[in-house]
Structure formats: C-alpha cells, structure tokens
Amino acid sequence: MPPHTAPESRAAEAHAAVRAALFLVLVGMCAALHIWKVPPALPQLQAEFRLSLVESGFLLSAVQLGGLILGLPTALVAERIGLRRCVLTGLAILAAASTLGAWLDSSLLVLLFRAAEGCGVLMVAMPIPALIRRLVPPDRLSRIMGLWGSYMPLGTVVILLAGSWILSLGTWQLLWSLLAALTLCCLLLTLRLVPPDPAAEAGRPRDSLARMARTTLGSANVWLVALIFGLYAGQWMAVIGFLPTIYAAQGIGGTTAGLLTAIVAGANAIGNLSAGRLLHHGVAGWQLLVAGLATMILCAWAAFGAGLPAPGQFVAVLMFSMVGGLVPTTLFVLGLTLAPSPQTASTTIGWMQQCSSLGQFVGPPFVAWVVNRAGGDWQWTWTATAAFAATGIVLAILIGLRARPRAATR
User: Fold this and answer.
1) Is the pLDDT of residue 71 over 90?
2) pTM of full prediction above 0.85
3) Strands, E, within 48-190: which ranges?
4) What are phi and psi of 269, to 5 degrees?
5) For a tag on the chain, would you pick the N or C end, based on fewer CB atoms within 10 A?
6) What is the per-residue pLDDT across 113-134, written as a single tens digit (0 to 9) for each?
7) pLDDT above 50 (res 207)
8) Within the chain, what is the greatest distance between any pair of CA atoms?
9) Which residues are within 8 A (CB) of 308 and not within 5 positions of it... i.e. 6 or more apart?
10) Residue 55 burial (CB count, 10 A)
11) Cα–Cα distance for residue pair 73/354, rounded to 1 Å
C-alpha cells in the first residue's frame, strides 16, 4: 500500500464527517418547517374547522408541548438509544404525524398530531448539537454551530415564503403532505450520510441515566445557559409572532406583512453566523450574550416605545432579530463546553431546549398581558421584552464571573 494512502483516507473521513454535520443543519431546518407551517395555513384551518381564536392559539402552541415537558427526558432517551437513532426516530414521527394530520378530518386529531410533531421536532433538534460535536474537530465546532444556530430562522423564512406560495396553489393538506415527503427524504439521507452510533453510546447501563440527570441539573452553569435560552426565546417568539398583528393594526396588507415578518425572522441567521465567527476568533461567550441582549432592549424600545414611523420601526425590529441572533449560537456552544462532562452534552442541550420551549410558551402571553394592561397599546411591548433581556444579561454576567476563576488557574 502506498505510504500516502492512510493520510488520504483520514482526510476523506474528515471531509465526510464535516459534510454529515452540515447536512444535519439542513435536517434541523426541515424540523423547523413543521414548527412554522401553521401560521400561513391558519386562515384555511380556521375556515375548515371553524376554529375560535383560542382554539387557533392552541393549534399554534401545541407544537411546543413536547419540548416544554419532554426536553430532558428525551435527552436521556437519546443517550439510551443513540443520538443518530434519536434523530431518525424524530424524523419518522414528523413524517407520520404530518401525513396523518393532513388526511384525518377532525380538528381534535389535527391538534393531537400537532403535539406529536412537537415531540418529533424535539427528537430531531435536541441530539444534533452533540452529534455535530462528535463529528467535527474542535477547531471547526464554533463555525458549524453558528450554522446550526440559524436553523430555526432559516426554516422560518423558507416556510413563510414557500408555504404561502404552496397554499396559493392548493390546500393545507397539500403543504402537510409535501413536508411529510421532504422529511422522509431527510430520514433516508440521514441513514446514508450520518455515521452510525458507537456501540457503547447506545448501551449505557440503565442506572447511569439517573446519574446523568442529577449531574446535569446539579450544574449551575447548565441552569444559567438554559435560563438565558428561555428568556431569549420568549422575547424573540413574542415579537416575531405578533409582528403580523402589529402590521395589520397599521394597515399593512397580509402578503406584505408576511414578507416583512419573514425578512425580520431571516435576519436572525446573520447574528447566528456572526457569533460562530466571533467565538472562533476568541471573543468570550458571555460578552456576546450581553451585547446581543442589550441590543435587543434598545431595539425593542426604538421599535415600540420611541414613536418611530413605520420604516424606522421596521429597521429597529430587523436589528432586534439580527443582533439578537448572537445569543442562540453562543448558548449552544456554551452548552457543549460548560456541560459537566462529555456524556452530559446531550442532556444539557435537552434541558436548554426544555427551557427554550417554556420561554416560547410563556413569552407571547406575557407580552399580550402587558399590552392588554396598557389598553391595547403596543408601545409598551418593549417593557415586557426588556424584562426578559435584562434578566438574561444578569445571568450572562454570572457566567463570565464563574469563568474567571477557571481562567486564573490555567
């Protein structure tokens, strides 16, 4: 065998591993499509099933129930069955639930399968950061995690634009079926492109799961990262979710409002990618968190409290989402690096996802409550989001303070 064969083989394996990691980002985007497919289809669903506003709200939020209740338990299941198997199982649940939800003529069944889709999304998104960490070398981790941090905003843009176009040609059942087919394709490609789980990963003793849960929840760093994730997700979801309503109150049409909302949501990806590069060049994670959250406070005030005209308000909301995008990527990287052990990386991400779902579940109603208390005036929206962001800044500074003793001992 020629002497250069082994190095070439290792290079090919490394290239395949990076390709698999990048493909997993696309898998996450596929899962995000299922989260955001309801908003553009809601008018059709309301007309077909005669849904009230409250029932429509439940249909929108049902997808968060899986993450709200099962974040950490799903991470423990992933440790039992293996990270890749967990992703495959989640994709299968998404494909099946989307198919059945499309062709069963009952609003209750659609709602139940919507909740099942939430479990599928969780089983897909939760293990992927740990899978990426397993696949790529440490010197490339922050950059690829920057891509991973943008899976949600990019998926949001795709479904808000492409979903609206598909719905103009057909029914919501068509959209559900096409997404099921796309998810099945992702499942087959995952089988082909992502390496199998190591035998030891899927065969840990049963009692180790309880220890991993205790270790994860016993770490102050894990709690800090997870709580910041929840605080960030709550305010971002509230602002993006209510943007069409705010635009409608200003007399901006539905198609234009949808396009503007998609642009704002997509801008979040710029912050995610920037965070990956900044972390790669040595910027401290806690500093990026403070910068992102502080900018969200200023931009929320400019958008809602400063009385700017519509163009200025749009620019402020755009910056709110764009610079706020520094936060999720930074938190994913911190979650992997601050996990109590390599074995608890997936459970740390699982707890982060659970707190994120809690924030997305609580944030919009809290903002709506503040607006109602203000007599329906949206100019006080920024006070609600600022409360979330200010708390997150305090927690981020605590992360920085806890990191100093470790740095001093090196």
Assistant:
1) no
2) no
3) none
4) -65, -30
5) C
6) 888 898 899 899 888 988 998 8
7) no
8) 79
9) 302, 316
10) 16
11) 10
